[in-house]
Write a sequence for this structure.
């Protein structure tokens, strides 16, 4: 098994000094190669070589997803001949962003995900089944494939969907772990139960869960994970990542947050005005990528509200840990005087056994106020269930959205669009003011 990198077990002061050295290298690189950041430095009167400490970052403006979309080519720091692979974001929160990766960036990606496997206790000689696609310019599938090979872990590439193929592959190959979206894992279990497959007796002992959280802010398993674990006693490992930062925060067996890799990324946490929050308080995650050659990012606003934890982990790592995403800044909902984030709605709905699937729509009413409609798929449509759902919302969140029953298959078609790489649970149709 790969040993934990020394920098991830170092004192905080040593980690800060290490990152400041990498930051200085990054600033020199951007000054020499990035058209976008050259313009930023000139416009704001910034001496790139004067940014030497982590606290100096506050002098710099943020980078936004809109800038990446609108000025994409200006972020690229290498010639086309040096690009080894192109990836795009999923586009679930806006137009897909194109990112160019060099050979060095692919090596960095492999290193990052080899650390993810290390965190979940996998070792060379084991096998992982990937239920994420490697096509459609998707970074996650590529990253987990490259990371597994770097770690000496065998890979069986099944891709998404087709539960029958998933279970058939598990029976034939006997992989040790899955990389999957947890809600898809639940679908696989339902298929197995309907087709007489005893998934409890398979070779799978672990699942690396991507795209959806499996923990509450206090690190207890959330409703979705609890439903899985109530039927199948496998370890679920939560991870947080994004295509733009090409870095993952994956939890270890202690399950107390995704581990930060300081050799790959600098983190900041800011409030709605862009000011640093008090240490340990939740804030929007802002990242600066280290070691990226193709399209490095400086103070990129992820839009995700998360809570950092700074106490050393029992696994031996001293780096900060990220709690589960509380919500996305642009998805905050003001509903009947109450502020909500969609994950709170997801968790409540996932906790109800009667609900097979659902999608949530946020729209604006005639006065520009937020409206929430939940389409629920269930095999037991009744007034009693409708009342139960509404009462559960009022008890947990103090307000109840509009609930509409819909055919399970119709919701699945909405939730899993034909050309989408991810399941879609939230449709935000609000009018942008």
């Amino acid at each position: 098994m790969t040993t934990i990198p020394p920098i991830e077990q170092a004192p905080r002061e040593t980690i800060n000094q290490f990152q400041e050295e990498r930051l200085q290298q990054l600033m020199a690189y951007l000054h020499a190669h990035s058209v976008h950041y050259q313009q930023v430095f000139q416009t704001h009167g910034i001496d790139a070589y004067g940014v030497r400490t982590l606290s100096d970052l506050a002098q710099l403006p943020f980078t936004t997803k809109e800038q990446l979309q609108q000025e994409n080519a200006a972020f690229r720091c290498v010639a086309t001949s040096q690009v080894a692979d192109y990836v795009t974001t999923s586009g679930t929160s806006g137009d897909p962003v194109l990112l160019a990766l060099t050979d060095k960036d692919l090596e960095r990606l492999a290193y990052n995900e080899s650390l993810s496997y290390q965190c979940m206790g996998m070792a060379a000689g084991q096998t992982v089944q990937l239920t994420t696609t490697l096509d459609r310019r998707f970074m996650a599938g590529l990253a987990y494939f490259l990371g597994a090979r770097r770690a000496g872990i065998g890979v069986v590439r099944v891709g998404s969907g087709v539960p029958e193929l998933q279970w058939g592959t598990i029976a034939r190959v006997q992989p040790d772990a899955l990389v999957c979206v947890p809600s898809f894992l639940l679908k696989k279990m339902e298929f197995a139960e309907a087709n007489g497959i005893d998934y409890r007796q398979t070779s799978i002992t672990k699942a690396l869960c991507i795209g959806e959280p499996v923990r509450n802010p206090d690190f207890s398993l959330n409703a979705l994970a609890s439903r899985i674990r109530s039927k199948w006693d496998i370890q679920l490992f939560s991870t947080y990542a994004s295509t733009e930062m090409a870095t993952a925060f994956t939890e270890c067996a202690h399950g107390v947050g995704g581990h930060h890799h300081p050799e790959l990324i600098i983190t900041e946490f800011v409030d709605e005005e862009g000011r640093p929050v008090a240490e340990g308080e939740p804030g929007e995650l802002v990242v600066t990528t280290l070691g990226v050659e193709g399209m490095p990012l400086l103070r990129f606003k992820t839009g995700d509200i998360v809570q950092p934890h700074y106490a050393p982990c029992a696994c031996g790592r001293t780096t900060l840990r990220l709690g589960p995403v509380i919500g996305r800044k642009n998805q905050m909902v003001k509903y009947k005087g109450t502020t909500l984030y969609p994950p709170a709605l997801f968790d409540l709905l996932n906790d109800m056994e009667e609900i097979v699937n659902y999608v949530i729509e946020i729209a604006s009413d005639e006065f520009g106020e937020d409206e929430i409609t939940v389409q629920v798929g269930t095999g037991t449509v009744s007034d009693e269930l409708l009342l139960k759902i509404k009462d559960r919302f009022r008890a947990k969140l103090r307000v109840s959205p509009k609930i509409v029953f819909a055919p399970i298959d119709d919701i699945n078609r909405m939730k899993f669009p034909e050309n989408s790489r991810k399941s879609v649970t939230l449709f935000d149709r609000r009018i942008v003011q």
Summary: The radius of gyration is 22 Å. The chain has a mean pLDDT of 91. The longest strand covers residues 355-364. Residues 181 and 212 are 7 Å apart (CA to CA).
